[in-house]
Design brief:
Organism: Kalanchoe fedtschenkoi
Largest sheet: none
Strand content: under 5%
Number of domains: 1
Subcellular location: Membrane
Number of strands: 0
Radius of gyration: 22 Å
Pfam family, one: MatE
GO cellular component, one term: membrane
Keywords: Membrane, Transmembrane, Transmembrane helix
Order of helices and strands: HHHHHHHHHHHHHHHHH
Distance between the termini: 21 Å
């Protein structure tokens, strides 16, 4: 009886997954444009609220940075180093390991294996919480570590103190990334966006009060940031535990402890892929810290990276949407629909980022004053704007292609691509231009951006050559391997 009830509920849930059947063969441009228009509507139902979610969450740190920029250059540099290096490294590891759920939960949901989603979530919580404990020494000993890699004593001491304040955020990351992927796979995007929006409003108000009015500076920033992330996690848990996910959450289960090592391997592959992308621009901030007049260089570059981060959040919304669409449709054995979803996401992202490119170039002398009161920093940011605008365009397309990779389960392959393009090509070229040819921040950034262009081109080639029928078959095998039933 219970099995029949679960099966019936699964069938009802499947009716909500886009693609009640796969689309027919596309025989010409007219067919392609028609399907592209239909898929774009489905994609933006997911991408719209997902973009707001990523922008809201990213803005937590960005709002903190804006207020600290009014406190002084040391506070801004310390936050930039901690946020980019210490928290950035941890975020890359935990977000990467959590992204394994995008593949597993998305494909299981598409195949109707709803009851497995809660088990996957609990396995991921166990693994990410253990990983957070392993990352804890990075926060505790951040001051000597930053000095060891060549940061100035003044910046290292301030950033190290701030890192100690931010330990609660580390464990909030470990709980948040799995539950976000779990909800995202079920297309509960509006719920995630609403929670993140409330958190941002509260964060902005209390940041202004504690950092500016009360004068707590970095300590106030830490209090508000930690509280905001804890609020997000608590609100999501309340939603799940109180029945918001139906059969996808049936309570805690001992099944979560089965096949942990195999789950760790998949999570580790996902972590490597995401970390190599996240750490790449973290390294850009680090390299700037070795230049002459390091505080000004780090401040200017951190403002540019802040803007890149904001615009990448828009692309990450498309990343999340295309990951859900591809994983759901592959899980449901709809390969042609998955292929059209990829095309719709790439076209939409390209148009959006062309608009952002134009806006940045048109306001290059005005927007730096929003982030800093230092005239020296404003001049450097304005000078870097052409590079910034180009970077925004490129980084708007790359996450969409990465979303396809996650939805299809290609994490290990993309990790190899990232190593070659980023660290064997982009970093050496950036160091050569920045230091050997004395081009400074511009040279470092230009070289590393070239690595991103190479990675984007390779991912595009992989997507273009993909056999989507084979990917749908592999999704079926993956569901069987992780405890579900084959189609």
């Amino acid at each position: 009886m219970d099995a029949e009830k679960a099966s019936s509920s699964s069938e009802r849930l499947l009716s909500f997954v886009p693609g009640e059947g796969d689309i027919g063969p596309i025989t010409g441009v007219k067919d392609f444009l028609r399907e592209l228009r239909v898929e774009s509507k489905k994609l933006w139902v997911l991408a719209g609220p997902a973009i707001f979610t990523f922008v809201f969450r990213y803005s937590l740190g960005a709002v903190t940075q804006v207020f600290l920029g009014q406190v002084g250059t040391l506070a801004l540099a310390a936050f930039a180093i901690e946020n980019s290096v210490i928290a950035g490294l941890s975020l890359g590891v935990l977000m990467g390991m959590g992204s394994a759920l995008e593949t597993l939960c998305g494909q299981a949901f598409g195949a109707g294996q709803i009851e497995m989603l809660g088990v996957y979530l609990q396995r991921s919580w166990i693994i990410l919480s253990a990983t957070a404990l392993l990352l804890l020494p990075l926060y505790i000993f951040s001051t000597p570590l930053l000095k060891l890699i060549g940061q100035t004593a003044e910046i290292s001491d301030a950033a190290g103190t701030f890192a100690l304040y931010m330990i609660p955020q580390l464990f909030a990351y470990a709980l948040n990334f799995p539950i976000s992927r779990y909800l995202q796979a079920q297309r509960k995007i509006f719920e995630i966006a609403a929670i993140a929006g409330v958190a941002l409003v509260l964060h902005t108000v209390f940041s202004w009060v504690l950092i500016v009015k009360v004068g707590w500076g970095m300590a106030g920033a830490a209090v508000v940031l930690n509280a905001s992330w804890v609020f997000i996690v608590a609100a999501q848990m309340v939603y799940v535990f109180c029945g918001g996910c139906g059969l996808a959450w049936s309570g805690f289960s001992m099944k979560a402890f089965r096949d942990l090592w195999a789950f760790v391997r998949l999570s580790f592959a996902s972590a490597i892929m995401i970390c190599l992308e996240t750490w790449y621009f973290m390294a850009l901030i680090l390299f700037a810290g070795y230049l002459k007049n390091a505080q000004v260089s780090v401040d200017a570059l951190s403002i540019c990276m802040n803007i890149v981060g904001w615009t990448v959040m828009i692309a990450m919304g498309s990343n999340a949407a295309v990951s859900v669409r591809v994983s759901n449709e592959l899980g449901a054995a709809h390969p042609r629909t998955a292929k059209i979803a990829v095309a719709a996401a790439v076209v939409s992202s390209t148009v959006i980022n062309l608009v952002l490119f134009v806006i940045l170039m048109a306001t290059k002398n005005e927007y730096p004053s929003l982030f800093t009161s230092s005239s020296d920093v404003r001049k450097i940011v304005s000078k870097l704007t052409p590079l910034l605008a180009t970077c925004v365009f490129i980084n708007g397309i790359q996450p969409v292609l990465s979303g396809v990779a996650v939805g299809a389960g290609w994490q290990a392959l993309v990790a190899y691509v990232n190593v070659g393009c980023y660290y064997l090509f982009g970093v050496p070229l950036g160091l050569l231009l920045g230091y050997k040819l004395d081009m400074g921040v511009e040279g470092i950034w230009l070289g590393m951006m070239t690595g991103t262009v190479a990675q984007t081109c390779i991912l595009f080639g992989l997507v273009y050559r993909t056999n989507w029928n084979k990917e749908a078959s592999m999704a079926n095998e993956r569901i069987k391997k992780w405890g579900g039933e084959a189609r």
